[in-house]
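Record minuted for completeness.

…
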Amino acid sequence: MNAQTKIVPGAPSAEARIARYDWGALAAELDGQGCAVLDALLTPEECRDIAALYPEEAHFRSHVVMARHGFGRGEYRYFRYPLPKLLGGLRAALYPRLAIVANDWNQRMGIGQRYPETHAAFIEQCHAAGQTRPTPLLLQYGPGDYNCLHQDLYGELAFPLQVAILLSEPGRDFTGGEFVLTEQRPRMQSRAEVVPLRQGDAVAFAVHNRPVQGTKGSYRVNLRHGVSRLRSGRRHTLGIIFHDAT
């Protein structure tokens, strides 16, 4: 199967898909909750086509079985370059919108790093820092599988937001397996956010830290994400991470 054929004829471009969302409202949701849902980013047919790539090793640079590393249960594969056309297009189209949020967050948190306007320019920075391995990945879960709470950093240069797209349909393809985000604020107990998604929905969320307004200005909170235990069926997810790995 040729990964370059994964765009359905007549489907809108990645840029056109991303442009139809209210990014002011999404940025406000990211500010308030650390995550925001992009409804129906992919069609069911596109979801099935991407999930069908999983057994085809030619598309991937590595295969990780979570239990071997204490990550949980389940498995995933990192794509190799060149990325499938639809995936590469979404990565490039999402980045500029999220970079606006990322730069605002860093300013509020007193972090000096600023992100360039285009994803190509950011990837150049990653490669100059020795981070050259692509990080978009395809995850697969079966009954009893789960993903422990974690952060996807991969190197010193890390983009503070990422996107996960649910490729399977809850209630039909699988049960359980909810996307979970936890947030730890200083001197407070952790807060959990369970994000309901349908097939083709995407969730953008904080990778590591985000700013929260306090009485004395903004302060950093720490976030982790994971997937709860799958009760039945099979679940596929496409993860779009914007920095490359060492």
